[in-house]
Amino acid sequence: MGVRVVDWVNEAATTVEALVAKTPQLAERRLAVVLGGSAVTPYADAFSGLDLFVFGFGDMGPRWKDGEKRRGRAAGRRFKYWTRDWEAFERELGEWRDDALHLRLYGRVCYDPHGLLAARWSPAFAVPPEVWLQKAEARMRALRDRQASLAWGIRRGQALTVLDSLLQILTLALEIALDLEGEPTPPRKWLLQAALRTPLGRRLRPLALELLDGPAGLVNLGGTREPLHNRLYDLADRIRQKAAEALLAAGGDLAWASGEGRG
Fold this sequence. Notes:
Number of domains: 2
Low-confidence stretches: 259-263
Largest sheet: 5 strands, mixed
Shape: elongated
Mean pLDDT: 86
Radius of gyration: 22 Å
Distance between the termini: 47 Å
């Protein structure tokens, strides 16, 4: 059984308070902490860790570096934390970056003694539908690029390039599935579980399983170095087709892809 999010929030708060108690100078700084990572997703379990995002407000001094990852321990609990500058985070939100969106939509405030996030985090945060569609269209362009790389890897007999391209194609298709449902991309280790719950994800499921079961044909590079007759290229193309169909049905613009299809 998964651990409830509220339990993770309480544990994170206890851990931060213990850290502050043994480091009194932290209490005087303009800091607030948000719990993120897998703990705030439906996929948290007993093996999940605490991913803490420590937001600094104002001048935090020369040692404070935005986005720096560190590790700590308090109250007998190991945790990872990232130092974040609030203004930099707001800029990332304005650019609709995946990591920032996931944290803002699902992150839970677990330490805010000065009320620094009270007015910033409490209001509902919404992403316009057209933004999700634009993100999906951009990923489709990237998917097409990876499909071209896959074709070259097959022609040249480059097994590692072929494997990398296949995984990136699947990753992009899964991300499109989440975009079309207005869901931010979670940490990559949970991407498959998250995306397969969506309508497009369910259509991709048999193709994802076919790819991940081997992937079949990688040893002999799909049987031929001609992409149009190659089993691996055919699998990638079927993944692309499912994603393109869903994107078009959602009102996406694929006019740029004049060469849609097996060419």
